[in-house]
Amino acid sequence: MVISPRIRNNICLTAHPEGCAAEVKRQIGYVKSNGPVEGTKNALIIGSSTGYGLACRTAAAFGCGASTIGVFFEKPGSDNKPGTPGYYNMKAFDAEAEKAGLYSKSINGDAFSYELKQQTIEAIKQGPGKVDLVIYSLASGVRVDPADGKMYRSALKPIGKKYKSRALDTMSGRIISMEIDPAEGDDISDTIKVMGGEDWQLWIDTLMEADVLSEGVITTAFSYIGPEVTTAIYRDGTIGAAKKDLEATAKRIDDQLAAALGGKAFTSVNKALVTRAAAVIPAISLYISILFRVMKDKGIHEGCIEQMDRFFRGLYGGELTVDAENRVRMDDWEMREDVQQEIERIWQIASDDNIETLSDIEGYHADFMNMHGFEVPGVNYEAEVDPS
Question: Is the domain covering 7-162+184-277+301-334 a CATH 3.90.550.10 domain?
């Protein structure tokens, strides 16, 4: 079949297998172009199929030469329906790893479940034996707690009062107004349950009990703080409450690993980028589009793979910016004073008449399409492909 993009409410409902494969190869090429990294030998990436997780797995394998195990939940294609982009990404990754002679094991299933954790442990024992790096990069709106079988859903809401802001409809290029009612009921606690640190802690506890963590193991999970213009809906909202719980969990895991294995744990506060998770956050599209313009003009723009390549090279022998809360600040370039001042200036004057010149809608759109395998250079989108 010929696969074309179908977009609804800033969500792309289709993915192109050849385009996804080409994007994976591009990321691999970028990492290899920067030379080898003396780092992890055996890495477990929980949430490895898209965005930062995919970039981490790529940097670990093709930068450090590591054996990698990737855990993810993606849907394969059928004869008449495309699969999810992450599914095609992992198929392509495994194929490229095999060509390079690298050990690669991909596990598709519910990472929140006990069964998937045990399946991963068996894969570690049968493969590398132990892992020295655990990346926790899950991005899910729903979690079934294996302890009680209850389903929890995260909520993207402000806390305390209604959120009003401008946002960018990236498909039309128009600035729109939007409002979101404040959290109520169990919105906050449920969001923490899904996106906080509880499952990361369960993973570490389970891996330690199974004795599959190496001496000196490192683990990290990803967080975001962001600028003042998104604070009410993000950092001070329900998702921010979950991220704060994740950061508190990092401190507990750090103590745990330091005592048992001489290891360490921390969160990495990453840059705002076009990811499948970020695409549904109101106001973030306008902010990211302006951010891209400002950072590109200053020559400091990074995508997922550029950021994670820098992260790995800093983690293993280089330098990383660390704040007073022991958080690695990969958003250090984004949050530079000169960058944020320019974003604030543009934010105040942006309108339908000037937004295309003041922001990088084109770059935002390209990243959004590319992560679903569309508009990737060199791919023939008129050709028939097998979605399965």
Answer: no
